[in-house]
């Protein structure tokens, strides 16, 4: 879609759409640089309050992934013209309000229209340090890859719709999607990292590919070290795979070599389209342990799932996945 947008000539656009970055970055003055993004989607969980909270956490995530600090947001809502839906809409908005307030972000307005299927999300504006913009072109050889949330929300969401998930599974994946990437972002900025992205619709492999492609690097991934939701592994084993995940597998196949020992189910999970996924942080290897310790101290997952290299693989692929 972004390919249709015209080339950007304004020199104050510091990050545009060319490298599939998480958010746009615009310089107002040398000291004032803002970061902008928008995200909305259809209900991912049945509970309206948590749908609202997840939509807010997800919209904020692209600002955190860029290294920005979100300041204000605008509500975006579409909902059925049916008075019976209004109590749910109220709960959705309350979830969004509470999550934005947890993040310290003011909702300063927005826009709502009627639509058959409800949709909810936010446009977000934040500020960013001009020297610390974590865009997709900044990964370096030697970076360790640290992932901060479990993988498998797309598969679980499909399992929930089919009535195949226990309350415990639903609770765990809801809590994970509603968790802000705020502290993970603040910690990575304190320690100093090469770059970061958040894992959403294109899955772990797709978002990793975007950064490696913009940075002209390659990566070795260890599939056994990736944190997966147990419930997602069970569902994928039983053949529950969403359409978006199948599309990702097909689209990224040309860039990936899968080692013999990698189970089929892990290949599916690493391509699973995520909602409000974790940060994938590219940290210079000498700072890796410091970052992991700081994240784990605050009970944030910090899985070292692979490493970046600038040496081409013999087969010319960008990503090699082993056990
Ligand atoms: Co993103
Ligand atoms: Co986004």
Architecture overview:
- The protein is α+β, with helices and mostly antiparallel strands.
- It folds into two domains: 2-131, 60s Ribosomal Protein L30, Chain: A (2-Layer Sandwich); 135-322, Phosphoribosyl-aminoimidazole Synthetase, Chain A, domain 2 (Alpha-Beta Complex).
- Helices cover 36% and strands 24% of the residues.
- The protein has ten helices and 13 strands.
- The strands form two sheets. A seven-stranded mixed sheet has the order 8-11-7-12-9-13-10, sandwiched between helices. The chain has a six-stranded mixed sheet with strand order 1-2-3-6-4-5, covered by helices on one side.
- Helix 2 links the parallel strand 4 and strand 5 (106-114).
- Helix 1 runs parallel beside helix 5 (182-191).
- The model has no long low-confidence stretch (mean pLDDT 96).
- It binds cobalt (II) ion (2 copies).
- Residues 37, 39, 62, 200 line the site of one cobalt (II) ion.
